[in-house]
Specification:
Layout: H1 2-16, H2 44-58, E1 62-69, E2 72-80, E3 94-95, H3 100-113, H4 142-147, H5 159-163, H6 168-173, H7 193-206, H8 210-222, E4 228-229, E5 236-240, E6 243-247, E7 260-262, H9 264-274, H10 284-291, E8 304-308, E9 311-319, E10 324-329, E11 335-341, E12 343-344, H11 349-361, H12 372-396, H13 398-404, H14 407-415, H15 419-425, H16 427-434, H17 450-476
Parallel strand pairs: 5-12
Antiparallel strand pairs: 1-2, 1-11, 3-7, 4-7, 5-6, 8-9, 9-10, 10-11
Helix pairs in contact: 1-12, 1-17, 2-11, 3-7, 3-8, 3-10, 12-17, 13-17, 15-17
Length: 482
């Protein structure tokens, strides 16, 4: 029994290692061909056939996607249904989580174009209320925020307090007791706080609420009439042992880091503008700044820069517990991609679908992705079910165990079954460590990692049941007090 539980714990740790949904916003990206190669135009029929196959293979409840090339939309579509039973279309509103950062950065740079904001000016110049308990906060510049090099970190700020805020002003007030992890500008550390502070900066300088400012500066000029900041979509889904369970989005602050709600149709307009076509909200210099990371880093401003086979692509993914999304565009070929889903799981199928779309633009065959989420959930079921059985068996055999164990063997027999309990109780901490210090709460663990959390709970309950049963039998053992 001990060996089986230890194997189960090892498998749980392997499954829990962050996959695409939990990793850095920019990840390895298979490009459509050698640098400088302009792929032949991709047909809408080819895109549609691939996406329909991807929906079937992944089992996603619904998805919308768009592919652009230069100044044209190759194809925009919606497949599946939302949690109310309505068909998903290219105009179905979807939460895009951290894709919001690219829009927030564009709003800031529009103010830079107007010379109302300077990137290398300290943020406190525009937001005197921006402070933490660390005096170095006064040296954080606007550029530091947008590059995630400010020193702000989930590890040293009260993220729970920020999520209870109802306004950007209240959000900044929740930072006052925090500290920085290092000198501003010294190193990259992904932290949503940077972009919510940037949103408050936009609000303060523009003179309008952030949602209104973003609409006026980005969404309106680009014709993104289905885009906003805040609420709007139907409830999404989480995966629990292979089944999609509808759930309301986890409550929390919706600002510049993850508050945008948009559609595949609107994402097409956004990607076209990022490629330098159609209506523009930024000058060419500002757009180049938006896409350019600092020396030695790969994160620009709401875009992660990836080099694959000598070609440079810009990518960003997003996960907001019940919705998942990814966007990318290739400055060389002019292709843009966005995939949005109304679901979330341990494995991010949107990124796999994006890779297939990229392959299609290069004229390569792309098999629809799928099965990874189902395999992960199957492994977790195969861990949870035997663990529950072992717990029951261990409790039933506790009397026999108590008769044969004395001294240190008895102590060991009471300690090792508590290992799953320790793993479960500390899961927010070790998952946070696996996610490079990103804050993880118990509430979050019941969303897209729901299958993992349930398996951890089952193994912990099994171990605890064995310990309680053994202690009870030891207490009743004849001659215990002699």
């Amino acid at each position: 029994m001990r060996k089986l539980l230890l194997v189960a714990l090892a498998l749980i740790v392997l499954v829990a290692v962050p996959g695409p949904a939990w990793s850095h916003p920019g990840r390895g990206f298979g490009g459509p061909g050698p640098a400088g190669h302009l792929a032949e135009p991709l047909s809408a029929d080819a895109v549609d056939a691939y996406l329909r196959g991807a929906l079937d293979a992944t089992g996603l409840p619904g998805l919308s996607a768009v592919v652009t090339h230069g100044g044209q939309v190759v194809h925009a579509t919606g497949l599946g249904r939302d949690s109310t039973g309505r068909p998903v279309t290219p105009d179905t509103p979807m939460r895009v989580a951290s894709l919001s950062k690219s829009f927030t950065a564009a709003a800031v740079l529009s103010l830079v174009d107007e010379r109302r904001v300077a990137l290398d000016t300290p943020v406190v110049t525009y937001l005197p209320e921006f402070r933490t308990a660390d005096p170095r906060t006064g040296r954080i510049t606007v550029r530091h925020l947008l590059h995630h090099t400010s020193g702000l970190s989930d590890r040293t700020l009260d993220i729970g307090a920020t999520q209870r805020a109802t306004t950007l002003t209240g959000y900044l007030a929740a930072l006052h007791d925090g500290t920085l992890t290092g000198e501003p500008g010294s190193r990259f550390e992904y932290c949503n706080v940077n972009y919510d502070v940037a949103a408050r900066l936009v609000e303060a300088v523009d003179g309008r609420p952030f949602a209104d400012a973003l609409r006026a500066r980005v969404f309106g000029p680009l014709g993104m009439g289905g885009s906003t900041v805040g609420d709007g979509p139907a409830d999404g889904y989480v995966s629990l042992y292979g089944a999609w369970v509808p759930r309301a989005e986890l409550p929390g602050f919706r600002g510049g880091a993850g508050g945008v709600v948009t559609t595949a149709s609107d994402m097409g307009r956004w990607l076209i503008s990022q490629a330098g076509h159609g209506p523009q909200v930024l000058t060419p210099d500002a757009r180049a700044t938006l896409h350019g990371p600092p020396p030695g880093e790969d994160y620009a401003m709401g875009w992660s820069v990836e080099v694959e086979e000598g070609r440079t692509l810009l990518v960003h993914s997003g996960n907001l517990f019940t919705y998942t999304s990814v966007q990318a565009f290739d400055p060389v070929t002019g292709h843009g991609f966005a995939v949005l889903t109304n679901s979330a799981a341990l494995h991010d199928d949107t990124y796999d679908i994006l890779l297939g779309l990229s392959a299609l633009t290069a004229g390569r065959t792309a098999d629809p992705p799928g099965g990874e989420r189902q395999r992960i959930d199957a492994v977790l079921v195969l861990i949870a079910a035997p663990a529950a059985g072992l717990g029951i068996l261990g409790a039933l055999r506790s009397g026999r165990w108590a008769c044969r164990r004395t001294g240190w063997p008895a102590v060991a027999g009471l300690i090792w079954p508590l290992l799953p309990v320790a793993v479960f109780v500390t899961s927010p901490q070790w998952l946070s460590a696996l996610m490079n210090g990103r804050a993880v709460t118990w509430a979050q663990l019941t969303y897209f990692p729901a299958s993992l959390t349930a398996t951890l709970a089952v193994t912990a309950a099994a171990g605890l049941a064995v310990v309680v049963a053994r202690l009870t039998r030891l207490a009743r053992r004849p001659g215990r007090d002699r």
